[in-house]
Amino acid sequence: MRTLLSITFASAAGLLIACSGGDGSSAFNIANPADPTFNDGDGGVLKNIGKGGDGGVSNQCATASATPTPLPVSLVFMFDKSGSMSQNSKWPSCQQGLSSFFADPSSVGLSASIQFFPQGSQCSASAYQTPAVAMHTLPDATDFNNAMNANSPGGETPTLPALTGAIAYAQQIQKQMSVGKVAVVLVTDGQPNVCGSTMQAVSAEAQTGYSAGIPTFVIGVGNTGNLNAIAAAGGTTQATIINTNNASQTAQDFQTALNAIRGITLGCDYAIPTLPNGATIDQVNVVFTPNGGSPVTLSYDAACTNPAGGWHYDDPTNPKKIVLCKASCDAVTKDKSGKVDLVFGCATKGGIPR
Questions:
Q1: Cα separation of 68 and 71, whole Å?
Q2: Cα 18 off chain centre by
Q3: Which of helix, strand or coil describes residue 259?
Q4: How many Cβ atoms from other residues are within 10 Å of residue 126's Cβ?
């Protein structure tokens, strides 16, 4: 009989499979292969995740589960402190929104760093490569609050060297991570200027970062003009613009924008553990069960061309992550009570191209 492994985790955030307990013992709780139920690792029992023919995998497949831990995601914040940030309560409102985000328990699974621009050597990218607060596990706002309180608006908007330094730091973090994601979050209230900071040059730098696996999210604070080119080049489609007519609403809208970034970065990538004996990458299935709905086995779609959604490996030859296509990602991140299962041992729906 083929031994199969099912791994269950919440869909509200992408999660790394926990393959061992805190004491070094196995976190998998193997059940009787003949029994279509399996333990969840905490003493509860999960029912079989689906039946063949109804969108789920066969109930013969589920024999074990693991308690998950969050997939690590690191956000590199580059925060505009040019003179115009003193207008319309932009600075204190954004401080409040950032502080709430950094302290929010929902930010578990995230790490963050922050640096401000301009710096004294404003045209030197190296001035922005070392953050004011180094990469730091969230939730924890103390160091970030101290850094924000130590800075105040003043100066111009050297966006090009600031983004160049942020991407360089992000690449350092990326090299230190065996699995996970790193992204830059650029917060600015105006168009790039000084130090060669044209829209074209900044967009080209964002594209260079994205080509290296570092996307750039852009949050515009107030009447910023069109910042969409930077976001599009950085792989995040378009900038989020925050209105500054009302201070408390600005703070709330800014936190909402950050929460959306958290959902995007955490929601759609899943690390896979070592496959169980006898299983191969051709025997992995992704099953999404919406809240109150029936399980659906997603199809493998290497190019994500199916409008119904699906998933693919980061690298079919040497996979470390499962990545949901946009339609599936949207469904998973919007359904806070749904769940995603990785099921090993059954032939992959859609097949794996070789």
A1: 9
A2: 18
A3: helix
A4: 12
The two tokens of residue 240 are 């989020």
Stated as kind and residue range, the H or E segment containing 243 is none
pTM: 0.69
Residue 226's CB is within 10 A of a number of other CB atoms, namely 12
Cβ neighbours for 351, distance < 8 A, ≥ 6 positions apart: 282, 300
Q: Rounded to whole angstroms, what are the CA distances from 239 to 45, 242, 263?
A: 44, 10, 16
The stretches of 14-141 forming alpha helices (DSSP H) are 90-103, 126-129
Q: Domains in the chain, please, with CATH? A: 5-66+273-344 (no CATH), 73-267 (3.40.50.410)
Structure tokens at 48: 């079989």
Task: Read off the tokens for 16.
Answer: 């790394």
Q: Are 203 and 209 in contact (CB under 8 A)?
A: no
pLDDT tens string, the chain, 354 residues long: the values are: 333 333 333 333 332 222 223 333 222 222 223 333 223 332 222 333 344 444 555 555 444 333 334 468 899 999 999 999 999 889 999 999 999 999 998 887 789 999 999 999 999 999 999 999 999 999 999 999 999 999 999 999 999 999 999 999 999 999 988 767 899 999 999 889 999 999 999 999 999 999 998 999 999 998 777 899 999 999 998 999 998 888 888 888 988 888 888 877 766 777 776 677 667 788 888 888 888 899 888 999 998 999 889 999 888 888 878 888 888 888 887 776 778 888 877 888 888 766
Question: Are 341 and 49 a contacting pair, CB within 8 Å?
Answer: yes
CA distance linking residue 316 with residue 300, whole number of Å: 11
Distance, CA of 129 to CA of 218 (rounded, Å) = 18
